[in-house]
Every structure is written in C-alpha cells, then in structure tokens.
C-alpha cells in the first residue's frame, strides 16, 4: 500500500514510529527480561528488597561469584529432569506433525475436489469441532481411558492431539488445495492415473508451501499443548509445558521457581527460532482461511 | 454412453472420497465426536456415596452403635460400577452447577434485586460464567481494535524493515498461554520489575496482584489482549495488502482525509475478515483457562474451563460427573456463540448453489 499520492505529514510519521516502538517494547520486553533473569539467582530475579538487583546481580555475585550463572539451567535439566520432558515433547511433536499431515492432506484433497453437499457439512462439522474447548474433550476421554487402561502413555496423547488438530489442518489445507487448479488432476486422470496417483505425483509436489504451513501449525499445537498433556500423561511422561507447571507447584523449594524460569526460556527459544525461519509460512497460513472470505 | 468422463460436474466419485476421507474422519469421530457423547453420558452419573455400616462396640461401660465407612464395600461398589450411580439431571441442578434450589431460596429471602444478584454471582458456576463472559466481552473488541491499529501502523513503514517488526509483533501469539502468562506474571508480581515499581510509585508496600479481585481481572484481560492481538494483526495486515489502490487514489484526489479513507474504503473491503477474526477470537477467549493457572489467580478469577480442570485434578476422587455437566453447559455456550455464524454460512451456501 505505498501510494505515490499519499503524502504523510511529519507529525504522523513521528507518531507512527513512536507507536510501533512502544508496541514492540510491550510485545518483546517480557521475553527479553525473562531471558536476562534466567541467568540470575532467585534472590535477584524475584527480589524482595530491590528490583534493581535483577540488573546489578547483587545476590548472584555473592552466591556464585559471577554476574551470570547457568545454575538454574543445569539443575532444571538434570535434577529437574527437564531433559526427559523435552525428549517426550520431541517424540510427541514429531509423531503428531507427521500423522496430522498424512491424514490432513488426504482428507483435505478429497474435500477440495468434491462438489457434493456432504463436503460442505463435513467442513461445518469440522468448524464446530474446532470450537470445542479442549478441556471438555479431555473430560470425555479420562474415564474411558482409565477403563481401557491406556491413560498416561505417549501414544494415546499423540492420537488425541492428532484428532484435535485435524479440524484446523483440514480447513487450512482445504483452502490451499482450492488454489491448485483442477485441470492439473483432470489431465492426469485422463492420462490413466488413479486418484491416488494423481494426488501423489501431480498435486503433492506443488503443495509443499501449504504442507509446510500446516505442519508448522500442528507443531505449534503439539509443542504448546497444556490441557491434554497435563491431564492425559502421567508424571513420568510429562512434556515440557506441564513440567514447567509442576515446577511452580512446589514453590517452597528455593531452586524451583528459577527452574521454571530457565525451563520457560529453554522451551521458548527453539520455537522462536523456528518461527523466525518460517515466518512467511506462518503468516500465509493464518491468512489462508481469512483472506479468501 | 458407457464411458464416464472425469470432466463431469462432480469430479470425485463418492467411493474415492470415502477412502480419502476415512482416516481423518475416523480420527475426528473417535476422538472428538465420541468424547462429546461420553461427556454427555458421564454428566448423568455421580460418584458413589460411601457405603456405611453399623458397628457395635462394647466395652465394660456398655455398648454403643456407631456408623463407620465400609471401605471394602465402597471399593467393591466402585469397581463394579465405575461410572457411578445414575443421577439424571441431578448434577446439573446441584449447588455447583445451575443451583436451582439455591436461586429459588435467594429469590424468596433477599429483599432487593441487588442482594439477589450478589448471592447468585457467588455460586461457583455463575461466578465462572460471569468471568468468562466478561473476559470475552473486553478482550475480543480490544483485540480487533489493537490488531487493526498495529496493522495500519506497520503497513506505513518502509518495506525493508517490516520483516523483523512483524517477527517482534507475533511473539506473544507463538508462546503457549501458560508460558505467556507466566512471563508477564513474573514481571508484575510484587517481587518483579513492574510490580515493585508500582508499589514504590503508589507508596503502598502491600499493593499486589493478589490483593484485589478487580486488579486480577484487569491483569488477565490485559494479558488476553496482549496474547491475541498479534493474530488479529497478522490477518488484518494480509487483508490490507489486497485493498485495491484505484479507489484509494481517487479518494486522495477528491480530498478525503486519512480517517475517511479508512472508514469508507479500507474497512468495507476487509469487513469479511473482521468477522472471521472476531469469531475465532471469541471461540478462543471462551475457553480461557491457562492464564488463570499462570497468574495463580484461582482465588479471584475462575472460568468455566478452569472449573472443569479443577474437578478433573481433584485430589481424593475425580469428579467425572461434575466436570462432564460443566462441559456440556460449556458446549451449549459455544453452540449459542456459533449459531449466528452457522446460520449465515448455511444461507450463503444455499444461495450459492
């Protein structure tokens, strides 16, 4: 929207710049501050006497002899068993993303190529499913899972997360498949391909941007989930987010709050890097459903 | 003609559609459809009462009969009927849910309407409902507004530096609500950087988030706006790129002010996107729950989803029935929220055919 005709006055430009700076500060400072604070001891980051200690590292200097300490990280990762939680997160995320994409691309392709009435109803049902609060679904799972004795293990959680994720993946991929011209698969069908062959060899190769976007969103769902993982996994199998919450629960223990701080940083950093790398795809995914409307 | 051309109206035959859709359909039916039914069934059951027995105790001074809990029988009963006893709509109307009897009582006993409302809003379900609705009511419009302003604002800066600015803007949205609220909580806590400074500024060493219900609510609402605005921003920003230039240029030549241009050209163009963002954000806000844990605000702010969570992590015995009843009522709430949209889409679909 760079209009040649649109002349902005200097005061408007200044105002705009100030607004953006203030907003970016609000959006980013909490993360920078937490990152900074994770290298301090608790008495500094949560200082009872003077908040300036968090910057001057008064207690950190006394307790560890340096201005920065990685104690919180080492303790959380070893003693706090955060390594186990991150291992579980990696397992859950990898499986959820791959299964979601496999099921989602097949289903969304069919939806985008069918003109029957039921395709519309399926999309509407998916929209309703998308609106269900996850906790209401979890309250439906718990009892049957206890009875079937499949509660607490990773595979159950993976399947549940895949299913919860399907409505959004379907909508997203559906809008991407719609942009792939039908003539492509039609010509393949005339040449004697089966639908699956056309899907596999003609459509998928041009769908990579859409698949990457859908994959990223599945990844963010699985990686960030708290409701499902906290209630469906046992202590041993907890992923990172419920693990962080468990550090909060035992506040009286001196080290634990700092464990939570360092764990938050450890869990957030990879996500930020990933999004930085795939920023374009994230944005196209968020808008795919909206802009066509 | 025996040859079926794939170039007919319906490109994909039903059978092919079925096989393509089966895996994802099965996943959704098994793990979204069935759980809703399972929740519905569970909501009609309540956990068993403990089995009691009379025990006769005799000592030199005589015999007493006391009633004690028969643990063995209780366990046996629980194992035989794990779902609990049938309770009908009992759970729905009990004190922790719709509280019909209590409301009747308050209605008869209280003198004026204000006192009645006070009493009712102290019941757990209504308390949670009011918080959830207040949260939706304040967060959703502000998210739309702030997101739109940021989008307009970023759209006016030079293209070269937009990338990093967008990255900074979407950070609050990428992190999970629990982490996002924790990060803020650690700053505004009385021992954190912002909290401590506000205490100094107000000269009140006891001022803290937990000290007042209103402050807690405001904090959670601000958190909600902070977390959701980036989503509105991204969608609006993308929509702004599609605004046609000719009418805007014509308006500039005709002397329309910036505000007039936005009101009469930009807003009508992105209107469908605004409804989309409003809908998604309303659905997400209605299930607010993690920030309550992140801000440890259970004392003064409870949402519907939090009530369900609280029942499910109950220490002694998981209150399946109670959680399920709240869940069903939450689903009804979602249905009411979604109804206008569904009706509109259905009408559009019918006219499009």
Q: Please give the alpha-carbon distance between the first and last residues of chain B.
A: 27 Å
**Shape of chain A, please?**
globular
Helix content of chain A: over 70%
Low-confidence stretches of chain A: none
The first-level CATH class name of the largest domain in chain A = Mainly Alpha
Shape estimate of chain B? globular
Instruction: Provide the gyration radius of chain A in Å.
Output: 24 Å
Please, could you describe this protein's structure?
The complex is a heterodimer of chains A (293) and B (353). Chain A is mainly alpha-helical. Chain A has 16 helices and no strands. In chain A, helix 6 packs across helix 12 (208-224) and helix 7 packs across helix 9 (154-179). The model of chain A has no long low-confidence stretch (mean pLDDT 85). Chain B has helices spanning 14-42, 71-80, 90-93, 100-109, 113-120, 124-155, 162-174, 177-188, 193-202, 213-240, 245-253, 258-286, 290-294, 304-312, 320-352; strands spanning 45-46, 52-59, 62-69, 85-86. A two-stranded antiparallel ribbon of chain B has the order 1-4. In chain B, a hairpin with a 2-residue loop joins strand 2 (52-59) and strand 3. In chain B, helix 6 packs parallel to helix 10, helix 6 runs antiparallel to helix 12 (258-286) and helix 12 (258-286) crosses helix 15. The model of chain B is unreliable at 1-10 (pLDDT under 50).
């Amino acid at each position: 929207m760079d209009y040649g005709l649109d002349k902005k006055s200097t005061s408007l430009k200044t105002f705009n710049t100030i607004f953006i700076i203030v907003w970016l500060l609000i959006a980013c400072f909490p993360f920078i501050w937490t990152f900074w604070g994770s290298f301090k001891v608790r008495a500094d980051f949560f200082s009872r006497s003077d908040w300036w200690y968090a910057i001057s590292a008064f207690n950190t200097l006394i307790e560890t002899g340096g201005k920065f300490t990685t104690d919180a990280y080492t303790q959380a990762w070893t003693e706090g068993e955060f390594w186990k939680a991150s291992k579980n997160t990696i397992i859950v995320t990898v499986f959820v993303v791959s299964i979601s994409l496999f099921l989602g691309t097949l289903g969304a392709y069919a939806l985008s190529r069918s003109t029957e009435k039921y395709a519309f109803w399926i999309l509407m049902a998916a929209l309703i499913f998308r609106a269900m609060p996850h906790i209401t679904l979890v309250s439906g799972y718990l009892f049957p899972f206890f009875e079937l004795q499949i509660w607490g293990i990773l595979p159950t959680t993976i399947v549940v997360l895949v299913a919860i994720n399907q409505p959004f993946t379907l909508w997203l991929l559906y809008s991407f498949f719609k942009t792939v011209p039908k003539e492509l698969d039609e010509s393949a069908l005339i040449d004697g391909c089966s639908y699956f062959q056309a899907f596999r060899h003609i459509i998928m190769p041009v769908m990579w941007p859409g698949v990457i976007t859908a994959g990223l969103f599945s990844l963010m769902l699985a990686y960030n989930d708290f409701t499902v993982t906290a209630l469906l996994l046992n202590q041993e199998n907890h992923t990172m987010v419920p693990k962080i919450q468990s550090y909060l629960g035992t506040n009286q223990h001196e080290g634990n709050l700092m464990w939570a701080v360092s764990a938050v940083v450890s869990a957030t950093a990879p996500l930020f890097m990933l999004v930085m790398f795939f920023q374009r795809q994230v944005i196209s995914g968020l808008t795919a459903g909206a802009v066509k409307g | 003609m025996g040859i079926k051309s794939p170039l007919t109206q319906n490109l994909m035959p039903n059978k092919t559609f079925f096989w393509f859709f089966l895996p994802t359909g099965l996943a959704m039916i098994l793990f979204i459809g069935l759980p809703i039914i399972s929740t519905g069934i569970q909501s009609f059951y309540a956990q068993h009462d403990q089995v009691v027995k009379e025990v006769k105790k005799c000592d030199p001074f005589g015999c007493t009969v006391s009633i004690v809990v028969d643990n063995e029988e209780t366990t046996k009963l629980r194992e035989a009927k794990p779902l609990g006893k049938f309770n009908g709509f009992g759970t729905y109307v009990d004190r922790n849910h719709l509280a019909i009897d209590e409301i009747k009582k308050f209605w008869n006993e209280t003198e004026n309407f204000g006192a009645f409302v006070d009493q009712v809003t102290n019941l757990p379900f209504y308390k949670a409902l009011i918080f959830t609705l207040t949260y939706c009511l304040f967060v959703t419009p502000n998210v739309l507004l702030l997101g739109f302003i940021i989008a307009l604002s970023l759209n006016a800066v030079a293209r070269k530096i937009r990338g990093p600015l967008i990255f900074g803007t979407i950070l609050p949205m990428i992190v999970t609500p629990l982490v996002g609220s924790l990060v803020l909580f650690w700053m505004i806590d009385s021992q954190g950087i912002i909290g401590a400074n506000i205490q100094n500024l107000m000269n009140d060493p006891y001022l803290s988030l937990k000290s007042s219900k209103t402050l807690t609510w405001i904090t959670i609402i601000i958190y909600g706006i902070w977390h959701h605005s980036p989503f509105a921003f991204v969608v609006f920003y993308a929509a702004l790129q599609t605004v046609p230039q000719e009418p805007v240029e014509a308006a500039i030549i005709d002397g329309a002010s910036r505000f007039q241009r936005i009101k009469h050209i930009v807003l009508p163009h992105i209107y469908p996107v605004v409804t989309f963002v409003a809908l998604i954000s309303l659905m997400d806000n209605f299930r607010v729950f993690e920030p309550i844990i992140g801000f440890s605000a259970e004392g003064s702010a409870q949402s519907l989803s939090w009530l369900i969570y609280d029942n499910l992590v109950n220490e002694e015995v998981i209150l399946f029935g109670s959680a399920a009843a709240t869940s069903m009522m939450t689903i009804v709430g979602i249905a009411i929220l979604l109804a206008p949209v569904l009706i509109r889409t259905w009408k559009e679909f019918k006219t499009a055919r």
